[in-house]
Amino acid sequence: MMLGYLLGRAGVGTVVLEKHADFLRDFRGDTVHPSTLQIMQELGLSEAFLKLPHSKIRAFAAEINNRQVKIADFEHVPTPFKFIALMPQWDFLNFLASQGRRFPCLKVMMSAQVVGLTETAGKIDGVTARTLDGPLEVRADLVVGCDGRTSTVRSASGLVVQDLGSPIDVLWFRLSKKANDPGQVIGRLGRDKMIVTIDRTDYWQCAYVIAKGGIGRIHAAGLGAFRAAVADGAHFLADRVDELRSFDDIKLLSVSVDRLSTWSKPGLLCIGDAAHAMSPVGGVGINLAIQDAVATANLLAGKLKAGTVRDADLDGVRRRRLFPVKVLQAMQVAVHNRVLQPTVSGGERPLAVPWPLKVLNGNAWLRRWPAQFLGLGVRPEHVRSPSAS
């Protein structure tokens, strides 16, 4: 939607295909980082955007073996937006779609599921899709796969995926919030479990980290055992774990970290999770995808409008975005292997507070740096694509 908005704004004829009838999905990426808020400001949209219901994270803390450790503080991050906004992704998508209606070059088609690619003389030149009205074929000078970690476009393209591995999966669920609940502590780590609790104003969005492929063991142990584990990991939730009525209330996210060796071929480009699947660690996925969209528009909008895009121009997106992707994926893999994997493997030794976190906890000034890394990312993009209006 962001790339569609930017290309429509630049006067490039663009069709966005969405397979569902609406954007209403639960537990999609809901963290809108300062880097994304800056982009919205550059587009003149931030004021209206922040009128949508949202909550704010101004600092990160973790609880390790019942000891609270302060990790990141956004107060001194060099941006007007010194917080992470928590907003349901469907609200963000609906906002972009509604704002994009002013651009006659942009068409958003709902209930249009891409099922394959079309190719002529070795160049991708369109997609085939299923719609409520029957089969559809859309021809295009450029097809952009923005369809996530299970990308149909990526699979159909034959582009090669490098799997960086992940030792964890995540179970998402929500529990009610009470007035006397503790303040914002993002992660709670013990010897054999980790629970993430995200304050969504009127409820807690929770993530329970398990070993990769461990969902069968969770089901075999039963819902009662899972409730007890949640209560043990986050004591303040013990009086409401019965709100989990069945495993239908608990959604599995199979975590993967991977990236394409090349992101493009003639007539085709992949960006976002279709090009580089991210772990939920740090909540950077949606924001990295938006950065990809901005870079793509910056590099290609003018050439698409002029009809002069070359294969090397498509690869320029990968060259521009590969460094921040590699840095963030390396961070995520390190957290997986050094923190989360030992936790979910059920080691016998008590989990110790790593020394870097001890340093951050004891030095408020230093906590701006992890906040800046998470909030602004590596090589943040700024809107430079033209506006046709």
CATH class of the largest domain: Alpha Beta
Using the coordinates shown, work out and report the CATH topology of the largest domain: FAD/NAD(P)-binding domain
Instruction: Please tally the β strands and state the result.
Output: 20
Radius of gyration: 22 Å
**General shape:** globular
Q: Write the CATH homologous superfamily of the largest domain.
A: FAD/NAD(P)-binding domain
Describe the strand arrangement of the main beta sheet, using strand numbers.
5-4-14-15-16-13-17
| Domains (count) | 2
Main sheet attributes: strand count, strand direction, barrel closure:
7 strands, mixed
Topology:
Blueprint (H helix, E strand, L loop, with lengths): L1 H8 L4 E4 L13 E2 L1 H9 L3 H4 L5 E3 L1 E6 L2 E7 L10 E3 L2 H12 L5 E4 L2 E9 L2 E9 L2 E6 L3 E3 L6 H6 L3 E3 L4 E9 L10 E3 L4 E6 L3 E9 L3 H7 L1 H11 L17 E3 L4 E3 L3 E2 L2 E3 L14 H22 L4 H34 L10 H8 L5 H9 L13
Parallel strand pairs: 1-7, 4-14, 11-20
Antiparallel strand pairs: 2-6, 3-6, 4-5, 8-9, 9-10, 12-18, 13-16, 13-17, 14-15, 15-16, 19-20
Helix pairs in contact: 1-4, 1-8, 8-9
Explain this structure to me?
The chain is α+β, with helices and mostly antiparallel strands. It has two domains: 228 residues, 3-Layer(bba) Sandwich (FAD/NAD(P)-binding domain), CATH 3.50.50; 84 residues. Strands 5-4-14-15-16-13-17 form a seven-stranded mixed β-sheet. The longest helix is centred in the last third of the chain and has 34 residues. Helix content is 33%, strand content 25%. The protein is globular. α1 packs parallel to α4 and α1 packs parallel to α8. The chain contains eleven helices and 20 strands.
